Amino acid sequence: MAADFRLKEQLNSLTDRIVDSYKDIGNINHLGHCPLPSSAVIVDILKDLKEILYPGYRRRQNLHMGNVTYFVGDLIDGLHDKLTQQFARALRYEYDLKYGVDCDRRHLMDFEARGQQAAIEFLESLPAMRQILATDVAAAYEGDPAASGLDEIIFCYPGLEAMTVHRIANQLYRQEMPLIPRIMSEWSHSQTGIDIHPGATIGPSFFIDHGTGVVIGETCVIGTGVKIYQGVTLGALSFQKDNDGNLVRGTKRHPTIEDGVVIYANATILGGETVIGTDSVIGASVWMTKSVPPNTVVTIETPSLRLRDAS
Amino acid sequence: MAADFRLKEQLNSLTDRIVDSYKDIGNINHLGHCPLPSSAVIVDILKDLKEILYPGYRRRQNLHMGNVTYFVGDLIDGLHDKLTQQFARALRYEYDLKYGVDCDRRHLMDFEARGQQAAIEFLESLPAMRQILATDVAAAYEGDPAASGLDEIIFCYPGLEAMTVHRIANQLYRQEMPLIPRIMSEWSHSQTGIDIHPGATIGPSFFIDHGTGVVIGETCVIGTGVKIYQGVTLGALSFQKDNDGNLVRGTKRHPTIEDGVVIYANATILGGETVIGTDSVIGASVWMTKSVPPNTVVTIETPSLRLRDAS
Amino acid sequence: MAADFRLKEQLNSLTDRIVDSYKDIGNINHLGHCPLPSSAVIVDILKDLKEILYPGYRRRQNLHMGNVTYFVGDLIDGLHDKLTQQFARALRYEYDLKYGVDCDRRHLMDFEARGQQAAIEFLESLPAMRQILATDVAAAYEGDPAASGLDEIIFCYPGLEAMTVHRIANQLYRQEMPLIPRIMSEWSHSQTGIDIHPGATIGPSFFIDHGTGVVIGETCVIGTGVKIYQGVTLGALSFQKDNDGNLVRGTKRHPTIEDGVVIYANATILGGETVIGTDSVIGASVWMTKSVPPNTVVTIETPSLRLRDAS
Amino acid sequence: MAADFRLKEQLNSLTDRIVDSYKDIGNINHLGHCPLPSSAVIVDILKDLKEILYPGYRRRQNLHMGNVTYFVGDLIDGLHDKLTQQFARALRYEYDLKYGVDCDRRHLMDFEARGQQAAIEFLESLPAMRQILATDVAAAYEGDPAASGLDEIIFCYPGLEAMTVHRIANQLYRQEMPLIPRIMSEWSHSQTGIDIHPGATIGPSFFIDHGTGVVIGETCVIGTGVKIYQGVTLGALSFQKDNDGNLVRGTKRHPTIEDGVVIYANATILGGETVIGTDSVIGASVWMTKSVPPNTVVTIETPSLRLRDAS
Amino acid sequence: MAADFRLKEQLNSLTDRIVDSYKDIGNINHLGHCPLPSSAVIVDILKDLKEILYPGYRRRQNLHMGNVTYFVGDLIDGLHDKLTQQFARALRYEYDLKYGVDCDRRHLMDFEARGQQAAIEFLESLPAMRQILATDVAAAYEGDPAASGLDEIIFCYPGLEAMTVHRIANQLYRQEMPLIPRIMSEWSHSQTGIDIHPGATIGPSFFIDHGTGVVIGETCVIGTGVKIYQGVTLGALSFQKDNDGNLVRGTKRHPTIEDGVVIYANATILGGETVIGTDSVIGASVWMTKSVPPNTVVTIETPSLRLRDAS
Amino acid sequence: MAADFRLKEQLNSLTDRIVDSYKDIGNINHLGHCPLPSSAVIVDILKDLKEILYPGYRRRQNLHMGNVTYFVGDLIDGLHDKLTQQFARALRYEYDLKYGVDCDRRHLMDFEARGQQAAIEFLESLPAMRQILATDVAAAYEGDPAASGLDEIIFCYPGLEAMTVHRIANQLYRQEMPLIPRIMSEWSHSQTGIDIHPGATIGPSFFIDHGTGVVIGETCVIGTGVKIYQGVTLGALSFQKDNDGNLVRGTKRHPTIEDGVVIYANATILGGETVIGTDSVIGASVWMTKSVPPNTVVTIETPSLRLRDAS
Which Gene Ontology MF annotations are present (chains A, B, C, D, E, F) (predicted)? Predict the structure, then answer.
């Protein structure tokens, strides 16, 4: 490799200037604080959870009812430890942020204990989560004529992938776990192109087909048996600001979608008070900011097309 | 790590309840069956194939005509073994699903023999596949003024990445290989945001620019020299149901795009009987459900814009 | 594994035919040339750079002002070596392409020296880059009511991820480094669904929310404090061709967005002469090919919706 | 990298000559045969077995009686699969060698079935093996005043490492498994410098201190509570040849060491009919080829030393 | 893989029997206790330390005085964390063993604080350790006519490897760190065949040539400039037992070797009161249990050889 | 992890003191010099070479005459590149050492060219090397009644492992390649406990049984069909010093062993003028410093043993 050492010594001055910038621009560092949760470990946790939720599809083969208990028991045990550590870090992070303290060693055991309680509460939610995910798999099979069977859906449908991570992240959101649900949902977003905020409330038998570009906001409420296509946005209409001009955080900003609704590709539905009534159908590219009653079919008046001969 | 053993013992009961759910909710497990194809191995196979199709760009450097035969011969030999095993698993999976049997050892050699035949048929398709991919690379260069050369396209264009995987997956689809083509196409989808069903029939010199959000359905037929942009959907208009209300699978549900057509961003073309005639141009955001003759330029009557001064 | 050797010998003939195709279809190989830059190393470089730009979030924990100098100095030193090698390869690639020569050993040291100069120029840009990225982080916090704090943004916002890579790639684009900026931007595109050409000029305090499907073209010029949403395209209107019918490369083909503009989801703004004036707001799904003056709010005349009762 | 292609083409001729040598010197290849057992997998198997035999010391922490069943059950299940495959390969190798056949597909299932039976027979031996290894650990503690406790012995005594592998390999030797026991014992030899043939019969409470250079032959028989030091050889006196001058294989060629014997460093005891009687002590560097009765202390008449002043 | 499930279910019973054996044979498990130090991390620590002691030879290249501070500072910082954790585990292990308690959470911070103090004390010893290791390297060069230079010694002499680990382990032994020094010395033993107890006191300029089979006991005291060859044992003569027949631990059991002594291959020197006087030479295969004065040359009266003609 | 930052800041001062020691103790650093050969790459090279010398035993399975050419050709091609780089580094290292220069960029291409020539000369030696290794394998089978076949020897005999590395290292020694042969031989030493200097001249059909502790010196000359056992030393009698008291390097210091000689365990043969005549047998533990004529059997007058009853 090149070796003009005078040039290289110049790098030492650069190092000093970069480190100085950590003082000047202090809010995009994480220096002198307790360790944050680890993105890499959180992704591992998601992979372990998928092995439990859908056993036999990926990492481990030759599973049967005679050996699956060992496999699951061992995973659960390892997850208990990983989750406890990551949750303790997230809870302490939130505490330090709130009280403006640097990492100290006090309360260490308290955060580990709280992390462990949260880990167990979370793990206890898995059997019910499998029940609801089974309805999502079935909904995908019923909704896509190209699907050859349930296994294909579990193996490769990005919509199911996104919903699996969402149901995990939403459980943690409801447990008020900081930071971790969002790390999970953005990892899923990067894998699938589907962006579901962990706060969204989504009923069983939910199916997203193709999925790229879907956005589902934090305060959405979605009923049973809803089906949506690629590019659908369930978003906020505008953001309320308070008297000081700051964004108001925490209100319902995203729509309600009732049972049995179908929303076709690239439709946009906005606003916290917008309700799409039961069994309604929203056509492709529709742009809605108001509620519709149940059993309504909404389509756009297709813009007129201009055709001319270019030959 | 935390060590309150009473809490941990609670996990044993949880393990039992999860395992019980494998009996109650039996259709999202793969227990007691023959091994499925491995997603990880299939991704490896795709990476090996790209080394053969575009030698010298990625894993291996310093290749020249004097040593490339060894490199390719060794890859082909390894691919023969990997493909044989994965194809045998996919074929046996299909058989077991069809006849409702658990994994038994009968016919083992039959499936391996069928897997090997399919592997060789597939590998024999590679020279012709390179010819058609060379037309795709050329089409990208001709179609994008930002491209500095062919190497940049091979190195980093997601549209070419998607088409490379598609031409592989489509070959296997035509060989009626179960499950594996879909695993391939969804892996490509997660990498590129471009969702092409392995069944789609696509002619040479095809170019997708930018690509995020593109959806191309199973029964599409696309001619020579077609060019499409991000967000384009070539989809189904609606799904036919039979008398029992079940989806009819296997009919032509997606459009036909003839030679030389250009389709701009976010256009949507739907329906199995829709034909876009030769050399036509479909404007951005157009929504088509009917055929147009050759040499037609279709644009939307842009929705009127309302401008108001907000200052 | 299967062992019918006659079938396997058939593979030798296939290998020969594939290698023959490297002669016949010679432009999608890289045989007999100098090594190209390595995609894998370039991704490593990006990960190292993120450790320097946002220390303490990912790979390394327990950093504080007392030890961060060692950590950064060691990374800078390693980056110097990696960048020098990759830049030398890219510069030599460009030279060989231009002069049509195969890889020879002459000028080797010249390219390494030029690579090293470029590496140092690039590394010197990091302190200023941190300053501008801090404004992007702040803009995200101000723009998204769902954000819990700056750390969440650094940890998981795809818009920030895309802008971080863009500001790196754009620096190299301005240094006229071949190939590498595009490898970087397409890697970011595959992670985030956000496609920003390295050539785009983007001011501070830029925020992309959700982001999937965003396309920003090479000759865009974007001011300070601009905010855009998923699916926004800032593209070319059409491509000029010269008298021989070849695409004209190098002109300004993409729009100018002035300070403080907000562009909502799926809006499309096209053309090199289109200017969106300061503090204007472009509504969702708007399709613009003309300039608007400052302080303009543009919304589409929403296409009429047809509602019918389907019950 | 260097690129004088003429020199490189010379490599092709070399490759041909090497491959020709595979025909001419055909007995140090393994070409055209069934796969051999994999050394790497066998080493993995040994590591898994050590986790079962001594749980909690290495790979996995935080084990307790509440979770260890899952951990062990999962390991046993995985070992069943790995052992079955490796044993099937070893048995088939032996068959092909004996009958002079190349790898064919017949009897495939027979070999897997025999491999599985052998795997289960082997796994069933583990509880008894733990009992005897516990006596070895205790013997080490009693025999070495430098040992701080049992954990130190399990963690780092090479003598225990060698005996653990030996008791595994000897079990397989008694099951007449080809090739694999020797691969195991030579792996242990390379780790510890202790060379014990898998065929050696060794009673409980055996302790090897330091160990480097110890050699224990195939037909040794060692009683209970024996202790040996580094450099001890328990070997063959000479090899019998038959009338044709070939070595006679399979007779007892190595000594018998009765209960309670201690053999100090570098002693050499040779011959299949040599018996060291109960509770005897063999001094350092003694060279024995004859039996001694019980309770005998054997020391060498130390060779006279010559001392001279070199100052 | 084989799939006779009845056979596999037999494995469940086996698992239960193995777990039962953890109760019956309870002293070769580590269940329900605090985590032990990790062998894998300790080996990593040794590799990091060698990078600091001999910079530029192995992992990292292109080091020079301009960048080595970052490299070393970063390694020291990481070592502080790893050592603190491992030392805390070792200290707690010792405490739990002594007081017979299972792992509880009390005193956690005390052990970490003690671990950190020990880590800093250890790291502070490194500059002096480099000084003494430089004398060992020089001694090897002076002692071996086959050595081409100092770099060859640092790169590949097992004697230096063993002494490097010994000087590290001995520092920790003197700090009374439990378990870890022995894990280090046995790792070195397995790499080099040289077995030096961490307790041995060894002066500067020590050289071991070839080394396989060397054993140096815990209470050895070795002066300056000593040189020994392969197979040399510096051991205990016999073990004292107390009135109850238990081994007496902690007395001086191994010899004293004064300055300038040379001991040739396979010599054995035993006994805590044996002193080899300054500048003496002990011949190959000599067996000493008594002291010799300074400047003595000791050789064996070579055993008479019997020569007979076998032709 | 612990976080008393005052203690940690103390580490910065320590870092400075360590770096200062790189100036004070300057001869055990490699700072400011060209990169040395890489031990890790050299071990990789040895593993690649074993795949070529004994194809089908380890990394790659399912090789047959139809595909082995690709496998070998690809390995040879990769080895050419790796060897060229490592040899260039070793040659430059020698040059810089000799002329006392720090790493500069001049002559870079000269060293690469010399490295490449040496690489090709080395690779050309492989076919003949296979011929001689085949005689070593046969000698092991003939010499060890415990061997079940040639495959067992190739798979796990440490003596063959040591000889394979030796024949490689000796070829490079004869090519006068600096440093690398010694790195190879010491790696082999650490794996097998057998220490053969790369300079030793060893004829065909050589067999080392068990092997731990064997030492064979640089200027040994060993004939055809020689067999030796564990612990045998073929060493130097004493080292000549010149008038200045420096060791004389480069004379014949180690013995000559003629064809057909057998040397039993722990025998020691010393001196450059010592010749063991054809077909002689040297008994275990014999200590020779003089020549013996052909066909001589040498045994020690076994030291008298003292037996006493200890019961």
Answer: serine O-acetyltransferase activity
Q: How far is D49 from chain F (nearest CA, A)?
A: 21
Q: Please tell me whether residue B53 adopts helix, strand or coil conformation.
A: helix
pLDDT at residue C1 tops 50:
no
A114 touches chain B (CB under 8 A): no
> Hey, are the CB atoms on D71 and A74 less than 8 Å from each other?
yes
Contacts 24+ apart (CB under 8 A), E151-156: E151/E57, E151/F30, E151/F36, E151/F93, E151/F97, E151/F179, E152/F179, E152/F182, E154/E54, E154/E57, E154/F28, E155/E57, E155/F36, E155/F39, E155/F179, E155/F182, E155/F183, E156/F39, E156/F182, E156/F183, E156/F185, E156/F186, E156/F187
Q: B13 in contact with D at a CB cutoff of 8 Å? A: no
- For B105, the token pair is 């050892």
**F273 has a chain A CB within 8 A of its CB:** no
Q: Are C102 and F46 in contact (CB under 8 A)?
A: no
CB-CB under 8 Å, D268 with F265: yes
Rounded to a whole number, what is the distance in Å from the CA of A70 to chain C's nearest CA?
Answer: 30
Q: Which residues of B touch E1 (CB under 8 A)?
A: 35
- Rounded CA-CA distance F175/F124 in Å is 12
Q: Find the closest chain F residue to B68 by CA distance.
A: F74
Tokens of D127: 């509880």
Residue F19 contacts A where some CB pair is shorter than 8 Å:
no
Angle at B53 between CA B47 and CA B56, to 5 degrees: 80
A183 CB neighbours in chain C (<8 A) are: 155-156
The pair phi, psi for residue F297, each rounded to 5°, is: -105, 120
Q: What is the rounded CA–CA span in Å between residue D139 and residue C126?
A: 63
Q: Which domains does chain B have, with CATH numbers?
A: 33-194 (1.10.3130.10), 213-241+248-300 (2.160.10.10)
Quickly tell me which residue has 């017949």 as its tokens: D106
C74-95 pLDDT, tens digit per residue, is 999 999 999 999 999 999 999 9
Residue-wise burial string across A261-284, b where 16 or more C-beta atoms lie within 10 A, e elsewhere: bbbbbbbbbbbbebbbbbbbbbbb
Which of C51, C77, C83 is the best substitution to test chain E (most E C-beta atoms within 10 A)?
Answer: C77
Alpha helices in B144-258 (DSSP H): 150-156, 158-174, 180-192
Amino acid sitting at position B47: K
Which of A62, A69, A72, A74 has the most D C-beta neighbours within 10 Å, making it the best mutation to test the interface with D?
A74
Partner-chain residue, chosen from E213, E285, E307, that has the shortest CB–CB distance to F296: E307
CB half-sphere exposure, B93, CA atoms < 13 A: 23
Q: Across the interface, do C3 and D35 touch by the CB < 8 Å criterion?
A: no
Residues whose CB is less than 8 angstroms from the CB of residue C280 and which lie 6 or more positions away in sequence, other chains included: B310, C258, C261, C262, C292, C293, C294, C295, C296, C297, C298
> pLDDT (tens digit, 9 = 90+) per residue, D150-178?
999 999 999 999 999 999 999 999 999 99
Question: Do B3 and E35 lie within an 8 Å CB cutoff?
Answer: no
**What separation in angstroms does the CA of D209 have from each of D139, D233, E193, F237?**
10, 14, 13, 31
Per-residue pLDDT tens over the stretch D240-265: 677 776 666 778 999 999 999 999 99
Considering only the beta carbons, identify the residue of B32, B248, B302 that sits closest to A145: B248
Whether the CB-CB separation of D274 and D219 falls below 8 Å is answered with no
Phi, psi of E252 (to 5 degrees): -75, 115
Q: What is the DSSP letter of E166?
A: H
Task: Check B8 against D61: CB less than 8 A apart.
Answer: no
| Alpha-carbon span C120 to D10, nearest angstrom | 41
Query: How many alpha carbons lie under 13 Å from residue D89 in its C-beta half-sphere?
Result: 21
Q: What is the pLDDT of residues A255-308, one digit of tens each?
A: 999 999 999 999 999 999 999 999 999 998 888 999 999 999 998 877 677 888
- Inter-chain CB proximity D32 and C103 less than 8 Å: no
